[in-house]
Write a structure and sequence with these properties.
The complex is a heterodimer of chains A (307) and B (344). Chain A is mainly α and 307 residues long. Chain A has 14 helices and no strands. Chain B has a domain of 226 residues. Classes of the chains: A mainly alpha (307), B mainly alpha (344). Chains A and B meet through helix 3, helix 4, helix 10 and helix 13 of A and helix 6, helix 11 and helix 13 of B.
Chain lengths: 307, 344
């Protein structure tokens, strides 16, 4: 293979991974939450808050890692509102998620105004003398930051944890039936609280990756439905953490294809091109629903929310 | 029956009280005198003729979007697609005006409104058929589809539909006089409001009287029972989703024609989501939606004025709506758990 082609391949692969990374964290978080039988549309808001707070802290401290941490904590804090409404007041889960989203949308567009136009110190890339000058690898690592290997590691760990640890199995049991699991000495309320909190933490982290690491800017409503997309992708991934990785990479590939087509001078309206990610998600939702045995993998308690 | 009424009065008054307290807290956080601000909110919403006309101008799209959410809501569906359907209706309605700008008003208005309703209906039909045939959750698909039509409007007004005379400004030509919905003189109260009120009353009868009302109630209560009676859940899903979409489509062309006078990128300031909130607060009951849409319309209009005169952030409207939503979700469950003998 020619060196040019390898360079191109390297650039596409890393661009795809980087575009998928924020979504991997958010989708993984929502997978955990849904595995315990709770749907949280508020991840859109938690991602937004994570992006806003993460960017603000990143700018203020000059340390991107502190920004990512703050973003994750902000997402977790906001998710407590969903917990309070859904577990505390027994409110409708879909309604609660939308309320969380509205509050986050409003507050971030207010507090985020001062952030517009600021610059954040990005995470360092992973290029090193070891890979410099090598075909494929130099581009691949030269444009990669720690967020990518972290996302892959998170997926692997999540899949292992859910299937093999005592707590992971307890979480699955709660999702399949809160009633039976509580008869067996598990406290479903506590498990669901933890799962919503973890979902918020990962969504906030994903949002912070988006603003601090991927786009390195803040803009009002910058997640543009990525959180909602991740709720859809959880279904496509059949509630399996391991499938989150390939599914999100598919989404990343679509997004990169759009960006590349634009720079390659396609004459299609950029606004029309921007519809592609949503349509791609819709398409894979349709394909996966048409192919899968209906709802076979869905946590049983989630069925009452969906149907 | 008495018990139900006492309960709902308790829930409503507790919700209003809790929302009031949250508003006080919100304005204190902003460093504004809370009671003065709430007083100003009321004045700017309902204080004089001008304020009321502004409130009614905001009420119109909110009312139509609330009805759009309520129609599928009666079947237990959670459609949050009014925003996208509103934009879809704006596109298909505008298409008529651009294709035949010379039509007389007697032809133009019905053609424009019908086309908008059809565009919105199509945009409800798609998530409807996905739900009915493939069991894809309608909340997720409607939310995703919202982003798509907003981008379509952008693509059109930046591209083929752009008025060449408008310099850099992305917008279509100004609508001819025949394509402007009639309005009360010197106000922004237009035919759309009348359509909304008429639809609310018609839907009230549709959902409470007659055979369809019965069928919808049975299917919403228990789908299996309904199917035993030979009712087809999927058909009703598709029909009600499309019907809701049509109503939101009318909201879209009404904003474009009566308020903005041309199609441009920002038609709606989240009317779809606000309408969904109104429908939810009203438990999808058309006659309750009427006053609630008016009150929330007042909140939105007054937040606009407050932003102008009291330097309250523009985002206040959506924050306050989110808080109202959260309170309305929390209060019933909270009251229930206060009852003696309540066990989780």
């Amino acid at each position: 293979m020619s060196a040019d082609l390898l360079t191109l391949l390297g650039a596409w692969s890393i661009a795809t991974l980087r575009s998928a990374t924020p979504l991997i964290f958010t989708t993984l978080g929502e997978t955990f939450t849904q595995r315990t039988g709770i749907i949280n549309l508020g991840v859109e808001g938690e991602m937004l808050v994570g992006a806003c707070v993460g960017f603000a802290v990143g700018v203020a401290t000059g340390n991107p890692w502190l920004g990512l941490l703050a973003g994750a904590l902000a997402g977790a804090a906001l998710s407590c509102l969903h917990t309070a409404l859904v577990l505390g007041a027994n409110a409708n889960q879909i309604g609660s998620g939308l309320a969380v989203w509205m509050i986050a949308l409003g507050t971030t567009s207010y507090f985020g105004r001062v952030l517009v136009g600021n610059q954040v110190t990005p995470l360092p890339d992973l290029g090193s003398p070891l890979t410099d000058g090598l075909p494929f690898l130099s581009v691949f690592f030269g444009q990669m930051t720690m967020s990518v290997p972290l996302a892959v590691a998170a997926v692997v760990f999540a899949a292992w944890w859910l299937a093999n640890t005592r707590s992971g199995i307890q979480w699955q049991a709660v999702g399949d039936s809160a009633r039976i699991s509580s008869e067996n000495g598990i406290r479903p309320g506590i498990v669901r609280f933890k799962a919503i909190l973890l979902g918020g933490l990962l969504s906030g982290f994903g949002g912070a990756i988006l603003s601090v690491d991927y786009t390195q800017t803040w803009a009002q409503d910058m997640t543009k439905g990525r959180g909602l997309i991740s709720v859809g992708l959880v279904i496509v991934a059949r509630w399996k953490p391991a499938l989150v990785l390939p599914i999100c990479i598919m989404f990343g590939l679509a997004e990169v294809a759009v960006l590349r087509a634009q720079t390659a001078g396609w004459t299609i309206s950029p606004h029309l091109m921007a519809t592609a990610p949503y349509l791609v998600v819709l398409l894979i939702l349709i394909v996966s629903h048409a192919m899968a045995r209906r709802d076979a993998d869905m946590p049983a308690d989630l069925r009452s929310v969906f149907a | 029956m008495m018990q139900v009424n006492r309960d709902s009065i308790l829930v409503v008054s507790a919700t209003i009280l809790a929302f009031f307290l949250l508003m006080v807290g919100f304005f204190m956080l902003l460093g504004k005198p809370p009671f003065e601000m709430i007083g100003m909110l009321l004045t700017y919403a309902l204080g004089d003729g001008y304020s009321i006309s502004q409130t009614l101008a905001k009420t119109t799209p909110i009312l139509l979007c609330a009805l759009a959410a309520a129609v599928p809501g009666r079947l237990g569906l959670i459609s949050v697609g009014a925003e996208g359907q509103l934009y879809a209706g704006a596109i298909t309605g505008t298409a008529v005006v651009l294709a035949a700008p010379g039509l007389p008003a007697a032809l133009m208005l019905p053609a424009m409104l019908t086309s908008a309703a059809l565009g919105g209906a199509f945009y409800g039909y798609v998530p409807g058929i996905l739900r009915a045939r493939l069991h894809i959750n309608e909340t997720i698909t409607t939310l995703l589809l919202n982003y798509v039509t907003v981008l379509w409007v952008n693509a059109l007004v930046f591209g083929p539909w752009k008025d060449p005379a408008s310099q850099g400004w992305p917008a279509t030509i100004s609508f001819p006089q025949a394509a402007i919905l009639p309005a009360l003189p010197a106000s922004r109260i237009h035919l759309g409001l009348l359509i909304g009120i008429a639809l609310a009353i018609a839907l009230h009868f549709f959902f409470t009287r007659g055979a369809s009302a019965q069928k919808i109630r049975i299917l919403a209560g228990n789908r299996k029972v309904g199917e035993m009676f030979g009712l087809n859940f999927g058909t009703w899903v598709i029909m009600l989703m499309a019907m809701g979409g049509a109503i939101a489509g009318i909201a879209g062309i009404a904003e474009v024609s009566a308020i903005q006078g041309r199609l441009q990128p920002t038609i709606s300031i989240g009317y779809g989501l606000t309408g969904f909130l109104v429908s939810w607060l009203s438990r999808h009951q058309p006659l309750i939606i009427l006053p609630v849409a008016f009150l929330v319309g007042g909140l939105v209009a007054a937040s606009d004025a407050l932003q102008l005169f009291a330097k309250v952030p523009a985002a206040s409207a959506i924050i306050l709506q989110g808080l109202l939503f959260a309170v309305a979700l929390a209060v019933p469950g909270f009251i229930k758990s206060m009852r003696p003998g309540y066990e989780r």
